[in-house]
Amino acid sequence: MDSKYEPLANNEGDELRGPRRRRKQKKRDERNARKWEDLKQFVWNAKTRHFLGRDPLSWGLVVLFFVAFYVCVLTLLLICMLIFSLVLDEIGPTMQGLTTPLQEIPGMSFRPAPDFETTLIRFIQGKPSTYKPFTDHIQGFLDQYENEKQVGENFIDCKLGRPPGNDGKVCRFHVDDLGGMCTWQRDFGYDEGQPCVILKLNKIFGWSPETYTDGNSTDIPDSLRPRFDPDYIGVTCEGLHSLDNENIGNISYNPPEGFSRFFYPYLNQENYRPPMVFVQFNNPKPGVLIQIWCRLWSANIKHHKNDKAGSIHFELLID
Fold first, then answer.
1. Closest CA to 121 of 248, 233, 255
2. What is the pTM (predicted TM-score) of this model?
């Protein structure tokens, strides 16, 4: 059956599509040309003398506004800085006391802590690659206490007490007071499963310890009495819980007395270095996580397990 509409031959279809393509292309070219002309007119209109849609007067007002705005901001900033410079003390904080973020009771910090996001000291005894980050961190901290870095007119020797009239000077800390067991040559005890940990007080401006005068005071724990010295802030470490005390083993302290009181008060002295104590855990039980609580002992230091005032918590795990 013959169809009423016969399909066009290939050549006839091409002939019809060709003019359509050319018309569409022509329209596209015209649109692009108009867009280009509009863009050029927007950037610069020679008839109206407008640049980016604004005449010279309008642009002048815009520039004037922003210049005035930033001048006012800069002036306000300079006034605030001037007020702060007149109010704030260059040496110490203006606000102090228990009602401020700067508490009157110092906390403690410990080293090694190569990862400040965790308080866990974990390594494998006899495997250097596992404890090297800890020993490197301890050695890096001790470098600032080298003798050649504590030389100058600002340093004084406080072995026998702080000489009067030297509040602006800093006491020289003798690394020899840390004993001979916790040394770089011994890998700070980590290779033998007897790790050493550095304890130090955080800086609190103007704080001075009120040390106990009597080693028989009921406020002093029994473990501190053999090491008691009225010129030192005592320090003790123990397990956080009874099970931790069973696993923590014997503990050694160097200096045994604790932190010398002659390093205080801290008054933002130049080159100030706080005293420190090496705590060595001589025979902690391996394969067990031990939670450790170290505390400072002074008449004006109060501590509690739920905060870090006058104390520090960390964990020890030897695989």
1. 248
2. 0.74
